[in-house]
Amino acid sequence: MQAVTKKHRCLINLPEVLENGGKCDIFECLFGLKALHVKIYFFTLKQKRTIKDIAIHVERDRTTAVRLIQSMVNQGLINKESEEIPYGGIRNVYSGIPQEEVKERLRIVVKDIETAIENLIKQDWRTMPD
Fold first, then answer.
1. Are 5 and 39 in contact (CB under 8 A)?
2. For the chain, which domains are there?
């Protein structure tokens, strides 16, 4: 078996890699996310965060943070809740879905990829169109 390549090292301890400014192409590829999405997921997994918190954490403006969060809410990776602010008002807070759900999605994606690779290996590539 081949040694773990640099590209695959992120799978050993993904949160630590991200915390230290690294990125994980494999995680991003499997879920179709960008490095910022992955960073936001782990940041919001620890506790509920506001858009301002998220924008500061990923070092982007508020508009970009809203766009990133909205895409993650649409994908079902982030939950959006409204909470009352002391002395009046309401604000939105965001939290990552439970890691167990993401891990289950990961298992499904890996099985789908495994099946696709097995099918590709079984094909006669000479019959494939140019």
1. no
2. 6-97 (1.10.10.10)
Question: Token digits for 102?
Answer: 């993401």
C-alpha angle 83/19/8, rounded to 5°? 125
Model confidence pLDDT, tens digit, residues 77-105:
999 999 998 888 999 999 999 999 988 98
Q: What is the pTM of this model?
A: 0.74
SS3 48: coil
Element of type H or E holding 44: helix 35-46
CA atoms within 13 A on the CB side of 109: 13
d(CA 18, CA 28): 12
> Two tokens at 87?
């002395």
Q: Tell me 1's DSSP state.
A: -
Radius of gyration of the chain (CA): 19
